[in-house]
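Ops channel
N.P.: pipeline sanity check, posting one input/output pair.
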């Protein structure tokens, strides 16, 4: 249950800060443009397009790692893959740049993936789920209640719930 006056505060906040309630999908592009993040979003969109840019076999052995000063870094499984991809480097760079709208990459570099091995005396930590206190969940649902877009509100509540419920052992 909301505290006395909480609904009125939420109403005044919404009235002051939003003349028209918009969905996240329509608001986000405006925020990205206002903050000047178009180039960064453009560059990092390549990560999600990687499987379409390269062939299936290459995608299984090479993954985007980072972008630093116009250089697209790709992490590969072995030195053999670095050698193979050096032959395709210009073609990959052309395909990457063809996907970009606001920016351009100058180079593609390859590095061998760091092998991370758990020490012998440790196994990987398991994730356990513990139920969230119903009162705490209800309080958060009330806080998120001012979000008119139901899909966005439910997504936020799911993320919050998973954050609270998941624990590493």
């Amino acid at each position: 249950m909301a505290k006395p006056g909480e609904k009125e505060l939420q109403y005044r906040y919404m009235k002051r800060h939003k003349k028209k309630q918009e969905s996240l999908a329509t608001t986000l592009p405006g925020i990205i443009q206002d903050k000047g993040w178009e180039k960064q979003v453009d560059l990092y969109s390549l990560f999600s397009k990687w499987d379409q840019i390269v062939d299936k076999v290459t995608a299984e052995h090479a993954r985007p790692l980072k972008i630093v000063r116009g250089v697209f870094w790709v992490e590969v499984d072995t030195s053999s893959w670095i050698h193979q991809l050096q032959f395709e480097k210009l073609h990959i760079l052309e395909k990457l740049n063809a996907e970009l709208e606001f920016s351009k990459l100058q180079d593609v570099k390859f590095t061998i993936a760091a092998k991370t091995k758990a020490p012998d005396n440790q196994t990987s930590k398991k994730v356990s789920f513990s139920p969230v206190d119903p009162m705490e969940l209800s309080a958060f649902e009330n806080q998120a209640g001012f979000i008119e877009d139901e899909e966005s509100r439910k997504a936020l509540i799911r993320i919050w719930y998973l954050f609270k419920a998941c624990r590493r052992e």
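N.P.: looks fine end to end. Residues 20 and 145 are 16 Å apart (CA to CA).
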